[in-house]
Amino acid sequence: MKVLVTVKEVATVEDTFEIEGTAIPERYLEYDLNEWDDYAIEEAVQLAEAHDDVEVVSVTIGPPRVEETIRIALAKGVDRAIRIWDDELADYQLLDVPAKANILAEVVAQEDPDIVFTGVQADDDAFGATGVALAATSDYQWAAVVNQFELEDDGTVSVHRELEGGIEELTEVQLPAVFTIQTGINEPRYASLRGIRMAQQKEIAEVTLADLGLDIDAIDGALEVTSMAEPETESEVTLFEGDASSTASQLVDLFDDLGVIDA
Amino acid sequence: MSDILIVTEHRRGEIRPVSYELIGCGADLASKTGGDLHVAVISGEVDEMAAAFNRDGVDVIHTVADGDEFNHDIYRQAIAHLVEDVDPRFVITPQSVNGMDYAPAVATDMGVPLVTDAVGISLDGEQLTVTREMYGSKVETTVAVAGERAVITIRAGEWPPIESGGSAEIEVVDIDIDESAIGSTVTGFAEMAAGDVDISEADILVSIGRGIDEEENLDIVHELANTLGATVSASRPIVDAGWLPKNRQVGQSGKTVSPDVYIAIGISGAVQHVAGMKGAKTIIAINNDSNAPIFDIADYGIVDDLFDVVPALTEALA
Ligand SMILES: Cc1cc2nc3c(=O)[nH]c(=O)nc-3n(C[C@H](O)[C@H](O)[C@H](O)COP(=O)(O)OP(=O)(O)OC[C@H]3O[C@@H](n4cnc5c(N)ncnc54)[C@H](O)[C@@H]3O)c2cc1C
Ligand SMILES: Nc1ncnc2c1ncn2[C@@H]1O[C@H](COP(=O)(O)O)[C@@H](O)[C@H]1O
Questions:
Q1: Which listed ligand is nearest to A10 at the C-alpha?
Q2: How far apart are CA A182 and CA B225, in angstroms?
């Protein structure tokens, strides 16, 4: 059995930052493994540990920089990795969902996995859509926002989908299928020293669009960022200033005013 | 091709409120394209729901009676049928957990751009631009969408719901569901365990987020809560890590709370968290990042290290 995990490196912005034009300059960005993908990797690795002959392959669309993040996935137990990049992709500030799905679908076609795990959403772009778009493009079954996953003996999968308000939907899904993984489904492991050492030996295959039989038109982005700004706030927040003992006593006064304590 | 198609949502016999917001959003867009607003009601008690959706601005309500509960394969087929019939310019769905489960497939089937989690939509001549948030709501971006058509999912709570009655035409749609294309079956629902306390009953919530860093550090939060006579709740990462049980989670997939006082400590204020606590009477945020979105909805705030402020507050109260 083969499991494909999509792994994205996401950008987080530092506490203080500026916007230049339609982007945040590199110097204010930090890069990290997407939180949701960490859970997706763990789910794949646990599946491989629980069953014989499960190969776990990761795929990432991203520039050379992302290798560091891919190594984390490899150190956690992914067997081998694929990294897709192309100079032409660098021209796009925002790869939209159909573009990503079209690229990843070529990998699905080549690798022919039984199960694909993606994250529910990428923390930076927050489309929350790539997994299901990939399933539809690849003609796979799917389930979105999965917080419990069980591979049954008959080859179907039973999942819980986490709906709003503490309700979960119990669903059976036929394979091959894509599952978008919700945080909390498992406890992602830390990469062990041994894992980190072993990850150095593992393969990261570098793949271009041409290698996938795609030309740039096939993924021509439909979305163009035209402006970026810090959200305007309507709220009039009252900030308490001073050192901790001073702000604490201002808060106590507030509690008193609100009638929640008898000072 | 100037019509708008919106897809409403229901669960276990109840209409989800975002459906009425979709009508508001759709009606606004239809007034700009000069087209009609079409409403899709798929699965469940469709006649009853169609009556409820007959509100201002709605031109046609299409009911597809197949299925009881949401199933993405039925939605996908039903929407494909309606898209063929109506030829809509925009298809709009909620960015709900179920919306996330079918909207991307609809966009794929239609071969059109997909823009998710919209907080604003504008149409300037022929050019569609959508406003959405990125980087944990720290920035708002507008994206220009190429082409004429699009599938757009909208964030709940951003458009005014349409409350009053309309004069829509109701069309019963008969489709031949292709059973062989149904690859998943909903077998039931589970509800989160009630647990020891009901945070939605609390008057004061001391709510802790990822800023607490380590499980041991929760002690300072429990001490504060004890001193204040408050109940401890949390954002999702705390519950994901197993530091507090699920029934303490505030937010979209946890509980909706509306206490007199909500103290958000080390919580950034992600939209899924805010969905569960924006109804609190007084919101106080303690966060060392002055740009954290929680300050956008807080009434009072302290921009400082929680490890300084929380013990100082406990001490000041004692
Ligand atoms: C489908 C779906 C459903 C979801 N449902 C929920 C839900 O029900 N509830 C929920 O909460 N989330 C939910 N989420 C997750 C949500 O998107 C966020 O990831 C989550 O709310 C972030 O939690 P946080 O604010 O604690 O952590 P972070 O976003 O990491 O924020 C931590 C904050 O702590 C501050 N901080 C750090 N150190 C300190 C310090 N020493 N002193 C003071 N401040 C400090 C930081 O500045 C930061 O603002 C859901 C997501 C999805 C996709
Ligand atoms: N550039 C990428 N490379 C690999 N996987 C990705 C990429 N972008 C998104 N994904 C996957 O799709 C999921 C959802 O992303 P999104 O739809 O962008 O919110 C992520 O959690 C990843 O698993």
A1: 2
A2: 30
Is A231's CB within 8 Å of B137's CB?
yes
Total structural domains within chain A: 2
Q: What residues contact residue B146 under an 8 Å CB cut-off, 6+ apart? A: A221, A222, A223, A224, B113
- Nearest CB neighbour to A166, from listed B132, B191, B315: B191
Measured CA to CA, the distance from residue A248 to residue B149 in angstroms comes to: 54
Let me know how long chain B is. 318
Cβ-based neighbours of B127, under 8 Å, separated by 6 or more = B144
pTM of the model: 0.97
For residue A155, which residues of chain B lie inside 8 Å, CB to CB?
Answer: none
- A138 and A260, same domain (yes or no): no
How wide is the angle at C-alpha B287 spanned by C-alphas B204 and B156, nearest 5°?
70
Say yes or no: A160 and A248 in one domain.
Answer: no
Q: Give domain status of residue A163, yes or no.
A: yes
* Contact pairs from chain A to chain B, CB under 8 Å: 266
User: Are A29 and A72 found together in one domain?
Assistant: yes
- What is the predicted ipTM? 0.97
Question: Any CB–CB contact under 8 A between A66 and chain B?
Answer: no
In the chain, the amino acid numbered B259 is: P
**How close does chain B come to A49, measured CA to CA in Å?**
22
Tens digits of pLDDT across chain A (263 residues)? 999 999 999 999 998 999 999 999 999 999 999 999 999 999 999 999 999 999 999 999 999 999 999 999 999 999 999 999 998 888 888 899 999 999 999 999 999 999 999 999 999 999 999 999 999 999 999 999 999 999 999 999 999 999 999 999 999 999 999 999 999 999 999 999 999 999 999 999 999 999 999 988 878 778 999 999 998 876 789 999 999 999 999 999 999 999 988 75
Answer whether B300 sits within 8 Å of A240, measured CB to CB: yes
B chain contacts of residue A228, beta-carbon cutoff 8 Å: 134, 139-142
C-beta atoms of B104 and A19 within 8 A: no
Please answer yes or no on whether A231 and B72 come within 8 Å at the CB atom.
no
Regarding whether A253 and A169 lie in a shared domain, the answer is no
Inside any domain, residue A227: no
Domain enclosing residue A257, as ranges:
233-263
How large is the C-alpha radius of gyration of chain A?
Answer: 22
